[in-house]
Design goal:
alpha/beta; five-stranded mixed β-sheet
Length: 457
């Protein structure tokens, strides 16, 4: 269906990404040679497809190789999204379009960015698994057959999503889908604009932004209304529903649904693009570590194998979230997650309100799997016994140690006597100007590269 095919403007793409055509040609030869030496990887990617990996890595050769391997192994990391896609293909397309408006705009922006709109149509009947299977197909089509673009702009309209729908949305399947979209898609993310967002959901989005690299977090924008989109997206790339020049949501939805239903042969063809041999360990789980603690623990405390942290959220209710999730708190979360070196063995959370539990689950979906597995929400206080010895728990939690009040009093008194130590810390500073990399978090989350899978330049 030619009416939904975007036309390439490779010259504009190169200009937007500041890439020289001759240099791109040189790297194309190198990239093809490298793929030919990796006999376990698929050898049948088209020239246009290989070019996208280089462009979306901005000719960073190592990053392009990493993106390529990640893309090839997506089916092994997200098996439930890839299995049985042929038998469920038509149902997945229809159900996804009944639940969501999923509309790639048929014109590129002047800088060759592609705009895709997503809007919840029927929040009461959300079924995430068909949507997840369709999403994998959507991104694979973008890589294999879509236009060569400078990057992606996504607009998410949450008008019909209300708090009572969040339990349906934020389940394990959806959270894994969020991880897939953030970590495993190779294209450049220019912006995500969220409109018509409920205040509670806005707090959750801001919490997620707090643990993302700064450059990525700044590209996730919550706008007050669809009219605010006019300041960021050309009118010719917006539907008439938002005051733009394109066709309405309903019209475009039908066009695209018919198009996707015509792509079953493409989905069947995707089975040819599979690696050979056993799956490397790095593509079975996201192995990464992060550390959290305070200056005192680093300089003066005992050496330990790691940390088990216990958070009791009993006194925290939804009406407190506005006070808690402010810029200062969110910056503290970034500090704790990114800047302190201790290993966290487990983080246990008890007495957690269901709404906060959903927010924590959403955060777990975008951090490395190994870390996420160590964040455990316990529904019953007695479950602590399965994880922590009684001699390491206060009597408030059924342990044999002193009460929390007693601990708090002793610890407060001790810290108040450490003024000289904290004054000494002021002398433990690097000399000279601050390197650029420590002024802004532009690179990775945590200690080792899971976010290298997403190009945000």
């Amino acid at each position: 269906m030619s009416e939904v095919v975007l036309e390439d403007d490779e010259t504009q793409v190169l200009k937007t990404l500041d890439i020289d055509a001759e240099k791109l040609s040189h790297y194309m030869n190198l990239f093809s040679q490298w793929i030919a030496t990796q006999r376990y990887l698929p050898q049948n990617f088209s020239e246009s497809c290989r070019k996208k990996f280089l462009l979306w890595a901005k000719l960073d050769f190592e990053k392009a190789k990493k993106k390529f391997k990640n893309f090839c192994y997506n089916p092994s990391m997200y098996k439930e999204f890839y299995c049985n896609r042929i038998s469920t293909f038509e149902d997945d397309v229809r159900l996804s379009h009944e639940m969501f408006y999923i509309t790639p705009i048929q014109k590129l922006t002047p800088k060759s960015y592609k705009v895709t709109l997503g809007k919840v149509r029927c929040a009461d009947n959300l079924d995430i698994l068909p949507l997840a299977r369709f999403t994998t197909m959507f991104f694979e089509y973008t890589v294999h057959k879509g236009a060569i673009v400078a990057g992606e702009i996504f607009i998410l309209d949450m008008e019909r999503m209300k708090p009572h729908h969040y339990t349906k949305l934020f389940n394990a399947t959806y959270l894994k889908l969020v991880k897939f979209c953030i970590l495993s898609c190779p294209s450049i993310l220019k912006n995500i604009f969220v409109v018509n967002c409920h205040p509670i959901l806005e707090k959750g989005i801001n919490l997620i932004r707090s643990v993302l690299p700064q450059k990525l977090a700044e590209r996730i924008r919550i706008l007050g209304s669809p009219n605010d989109l006019h300041e960021h997206v050309p009118l010719e790339c917006l539907p008439s529903d938002y005051g733009g020049d394109e066709e309405s949501f309903d019209h475009s939805q039908e066009v695209w649904k018919k198009f996707w239903l015509s792509q079953k042969d493409f989905v069947e063809e995707l089975y040819r693009f599979k690696p050979i041999g056993p799956i490397p360990e790095e593509f079975l789980s996201y192995d990464n570590e992060f550390g959290v603690d305070v200056d005192f623990r680093i300089h003066k405390d005992i050496t330990v194998s790691g940390e088990a942290c216990l958070f009791d959220m009993e006194g925290l209710r939804p009406h407190h979230y506005a006070k808690l999730f402010n810029p200062t708190y969110l910056k503290f979360i970034r500090l704790a997650v990114i800047n302190y070196p201790f290993l966290v063995k487990n983080l246990f959370i008890i007495n957690c309100h269901p709404l906060l539990e959903k927010g924590i689950g959403l955060i777990k979906s975008v951090i490395p799997q190994k870390i996420a597995d160590r964040v455990i929400i316990l529904s019953d206080l007695k479950d602590l016994d399965k994880h922590i010895p009684k001699e390491c728990l206060p009597e408030d939690y059924g342990g044999s140690e002193r009460s929390l009040v007693s601990f708090r009093s002793s610890w407060e008194e001790y810290l108040l006597n450490q003024k000289d130590f904290y004054e000494e810390l002021d002398r433990c500073k690097p000399s000279g100007s601050v390197p650029e990399e420590f002024k802004v978090y532009e690179g990775e989350y945590g200690a080792d590269g899971s976010f290298r899978k997403l190009n945000i330049d």
